[in-house]
Amino acid sequence: MHFLPSDVNFRSAVFGLLGLLGLFVSTAAVAEDAKPARAVGDGDQSAAAAWLDCTFGPVPERESVHLLIMTVGDRVERAVVEPLGMAQVDVRGLKVEGSRIVGRLVIGHEPLRQNKSVPRLATQMPLHIDLQIVGGRVRGEFKGSWPSPKQIDEPLAVMGEVSGVRRDEHALRSDFALPDDAVWPSYVGPHQNFSSGSCDRRLVGDLNDARLVWASQYIGPPESGSQRYGACVGVREAAGGASPLVFGGRIYQFRYQASGDAYQSHLDKQLAGDRAERWREEMEAVGWTEADMRRRWAIDADEELVCIDGATGRTLWTVSWPGEGINLYDHKCSLTNHTGVVAEGKVFVFGALGVVRCVDADNGKLLWRTEVPGYADYMQAFKAKALEQRNIWAPTRSFCHGLNISGDTVIAPDGIGECGLVGLSADTGEVKWRVPKVLGKAATPLAWRCEQRNCVIAANASGDITCIDSASGDLVWRTDEAGDNEYSVILLGDLLFGQKLKREEREQVSHFDDPGGIHSAPGRNYGQVACWRLTSDGPQSVWTAPAEWGAPANCAVGAASGELVCFRGKFSYYLVEAESGKRVASTHLPTPVRWDEGHLLALPGLFVLHPDSQHGHTKTFALPAAAGARASPMWTPPQPHATTYQAPMSHAWADGRLFLRGADALYCYDLRGNRPQH
Questions:
Q1: pTM
Q2: Residue 676 has pLDDT above 90, yes or no
Q3: Contact between residue 649 and residue 656 where contact means Cβ atoms under 8 Å apart
Q4: What residues form DSSP beta bridges with 250?
Q5: What is the residue-averaged pLDDT of the chain?
Q6: CA atoms of 557 and 584, how far apart (whole Å)
Q7: CB 626 within 8 A of CB 604
Q8: What is the 3-state secondary structure (H, E, C) of 235-266?
Q9: Could you give the C-alpha distances from 565 to 159, 292, 456, 463, in angstroms and in order?
């Protein structure tokens, strides 16, 4: 018997491995056929949701483990055991019996095996739990199996106590509902610089104090196994790397799911080749049939927008566009950053085939759809060729542009690499203008208000910075005096921060030439960060960082908030005054990590450093926005990790909450201090 999580009910288990190949699973079920604009949520929408926030222990080498259980009405919907995540936990054996939750919770655990095309099979470990809920408090006991720290696929007998709290829907909304001004409307955030808005409570100074609040339904990994890894038995197909958006107390997540009868001929070759016997043995062991394998290697895809309640993590509705996508994953290439944009009660969804759809943010109703000139032409031909040849060979590290909005114009790319921009009417979807060859291949255009008009700022690898009137598409000004800005530049008011040096001017630095001796793989191709003040007549140079600081050119330039900007150098992170470029603080990381392709985000009073956001690592550090600040200890979010190549996911931050893509689901962490206790 095999099963996959249904789009209606995500109680079924998907046992997995998060590694170089994505999320491995050992069980599968056929998901319900997608239908256009169908409202799909977690269970009966009239039934109340609740989360049990508990710890249980002891287990080997740990005093306790964090356990979250979601109920909807009289049914257990899903659960999370840190750090295994949501998809590793099968809750079908748990029952709600009045004020008790009893039954069997099954954990499927896989060791991480990087750089291996064949996973070890999942070990199922049942835990029998009996929980009593009295006055919002949870007490109970557990008994069963837990992975051995030394032989993770050999379970050990465990037993102990469970304790925690139950938050009903009223408490969840009281504690975790997002205010109306808490938004993350685009890939670059609300301020065009990867910074969030304000928060009325002080944030924790150490990210290890972040608390997991909820996990969403199954979303899927942003990346997956490609042809170089063989048949990829048990490897879930990619769902794309779109970042979540926050608006109106809700989270909007774009994804795609493999569908249709057409599949890549690579599968036929694998099942008839030299390793066919090996693949079939693995298929039998994980419960996959040839139908499951054909789905994994499908060419078509259904595209979906999932709407999630920000307070409870409950799916409110899903709209689906069957067959309107492509099941894109080649080596280091999925729909890397097809992040849409949300504004004025509308969500603008960026589909794989170059279609922008506008839907009502309240109910998902389709308002209009437009094929983006250039992009749609290319991708429709791309998919037609894939179907004809039964093969997908994607351009490596492409599809890295998010949408943005300036005034009443939605800004979209017209190609998959370095490209031009297209302006669409936010009201009707009408194509208003097209400007060629202005955007770097891993960049998102920025919205800028210039005196009394709305503009778009785009930079590229040739050293151009271009300002476009977003209403008319007219060129306001262009300069070629900047550097190689293949990745996103950022804005702070009228100040623009980007790379100063052209590609041929950048210093080539060895990965291991680290005089500080405390970093690994500090990166290559270093340039200089520069600041320009944007005016209606063009940019004016304000400052350039010292050459010896360096600045990696293979990532967005940094993040900015308040009066400060933070960026990476050769061996340190630098915190500087935005207006003057004066150094406020510089810090090495306290733990050696890979950091040659990273990302930064900014919260009120805090910068979040993500040194490597492209190789399956979600190791992060906090840097206070203060003079003499030092990076806090490393935090590794306790979930299956997920990253994308070339353009990292920016995740989403709003009112002290982090909405983080995992390899299976979307996770909400609370970083506010003085959290409520119930």
A1: 0.91
A2: no
A3: no
A4: 247, 309
A5: 86
A6: 18
A7: no
A8: ECCCCCCCCCEEECCEEEEEEEEEEEEEECHH
A9: 50, 48, 21, 21
